[in-house]
Write a structure and sequence with these properties.
The chain is mainly α. The chain is built from 18 helices and ten strands.
Length: 498
């Protein structure tokens, strides 16, 4: 058994009363949340959504490049070079790790408290339990997808996963060990399926988009089973959300979203709860948007290699930082969480679309591509409608397929279809972090050129695709780190450009 250092108890002590007051106290001595009703437990579950951003995975992907004019930040440079990131602040793997475990801790506290409260409202209780289970499953899933090997049924039982947390932790140091990838997937699937049975939208206020509503849960299920390679279940849950036919409501109209005079206006539209394709919104503590002149970013070289047509509406608007760096208006970048009501400073954050309809659409497309010719008619028809929508009617499936055939001669048709899906998904989700998971799942290589012109290549089976767990968990917790095979230094794959 090992010790896991994740600082959970400190977080909980500021939010939740873990024990009753001493008998000699007549009143509660502080204003901590008392879990004595379903309403207060539901309030606690709102803290079960991870605050840490996976933006560092974008820096590791093929969606960013070098800009010599930018100020270089060590955490961005280390991520870009696939080194272990040493910093522990916002936008780092360590912050992402702790944020997900904090979310799990809140979900576990809510699940335990539900069994202690006696109220005659079983529907409300089930709904809260469903949301808490969904949050716990989601945080575990994102951790195992980030800090462990991609799921492979042949090796998942022996591949090191992450620590499974099933109950509230009151001690700063507790005995834990890393479960296998298979054990984590089994645990997540159990929570997910129970959540699907219990979740209810009727208890959410307003749109419910800041909670695991049923639509968001279907999106989560489609992602989970895609990563697990269970393609029939991907189709099942995606179809429950999208319907059998192409659903234009789940595909945003960029001609409407990318309108306004500032990137903040467009960012608000992109992340708006009123947009039908936005299924789950989470506030994320992110510095990335406020460091516009720093590090490796989406730039002209990436644009030239990625964008096929100037009629691609997904890239119809971009904002330059100067030099070659730019960004797409997908986030409102002027949000600050103040440290107090009277404070003039605070923590920058963004509203992140954690699940959106376009991902579910692509999840089903990929599943159909992997299922072979049995779904070919649906695949071609629905993919074609999407392409017409985002390319302003200038590209459809036959046109794109013929271009891929010419550019990749000799590639089998099934592989060509999958590549088309992954490439278009990459274009849809630039700057949103999903590309890294596709790189890992499909063992894609990545080439990075740094500000000095040196080129590094991340090979398909490179062990650095499994992001290292935080140093605190290794040193203080004595958890086994992820292996680094056949790599002595990042320069092992260095090629100097002539």
């Amino acid at each position: 058994m090992k010790y896991l250092y994740i600082k959970i108890a400190v977080v909980l002590s500021a939010v939740v009363a873990l024990s009753s007051c001493d008998s000699f106290l007549d009143e509660t001595p502080d204003n901590r949340l008392r879990l004595n009703s379903y309403e207060t437990i539901a309030e606690l579950v709102t803290n079960a959504y991870p605050e840490g951003s996976g933006v560092f995975m974008e820096w590791m992907s093929d969606n960013v490049g070098a800009d010599p004019k930018n100020i270089q930040r060590s955490e961005m440079t280390q991520a870009y070079n696939w080194q272990d990131v040493e910093q522990e602040g916002q936008d780092t793997p360590s912050f992402y790790w702790s944020g997900n475990y904090k979310a799990i801790a809140h979900a576990n506290q809510a699940l335990e408290a539900l069994e202690e409260v006696k109220e005659n409202n079983p529907g409300y209780k089930d709904a809260i339990r469903g949301e808490a289970l969904a949050c716990r499953a989601f945080a575990h899933f994102m951790l195992v997808s980030t800090f462990a090997k991609s799921y492979d049924p042949a090796t998942a039982a022996s591949d090191k996963g992450i620590v499974i947390m099933t109950k509230p932790e009151e001690n700063l140091l507790a005995t834990y060990e890393r479960s296998s990838v298979q054990e984590v997937y089994d645990f997540v699937e159990k929570d997910l399926l129970e959540a699907i049975e219990l979740i209810s939208d009727q208890y959410y206020k307003n749109s419910g988009k800041y909670h695991f509503n049923r639509a968001a849960l279907m999106a989560f299920a489609s992602r989970f089973f895609l990563f697990k390679k269970d393609y029939e279940k991907v189709e099942k849950y995606a179809t429950e959300l999208l319907g059998n036919d192409y659903n234009p409501q789940m595909i945003r109209d960029y001609t409407q979203v990318y309108t306004g005079t500032t990137s903040e206006m467009m960012g608000r539209k992109f992340t708006a709860a009123t947009l039908p394709s936005n299924l789950l919104l989470i506030r994320k503590d992110v510095l990335y948007g406020y460091k516009g002149y720093a590090g490796y970013r989406f730039n002209q070289d990436v644009y030239n290699s990625l964008v096929l047509s100037q009629r691609d509406l997904r890239f119809s608007v971009s904002y330059s930082y100067g030099g070659t760096s730019s960004f797409l208006p997908k986030f409102q970048r002027d949000l600050i969480r103040k440290t107090s009501l009277t404070s003039s400073s605070g923590y920058p954050y963004v509203i992140e679309v954690a699940f959106r309809g376009e991902e579910v659409f692509f999840n089903r497309l990929e599943a159909w591509a992997m299922m072979g010719t049995t779904k070919l008619s649906q695949f071609e028809s629905q993919f074609s409608r999407y392409l017409k929508a985002v390319y302003a009617g200038t590209v459809d499936y036959p046109i794109l397929y013929q271009n891929y055939q010419r550019f990749y001669p000799g590639v089998p048709a099934n592989e060509l279809r999958l590549k088309m899906v992954l490439d278009e998904k990459r274009r849809e989700f630039v700057e949103e972090g999903l590309r890294w998971f596709d790189i890992c799942r499909h063992k894609l290589s990545v080439t990075h050129t740094d500000i000095a012109g040196g080129t590094r290549i991340l090979q398909p089976d490179d062990s650095r695709k499994v992001i290292q767990i935080p140093e605190s968990a290794i040193i203080y917790g004595d958890l086994q780190p992820n292996e680094r095979k056949n790599i002595s230094e990042p320069e092992a794959h260095l090629v100097i450009r002539n």
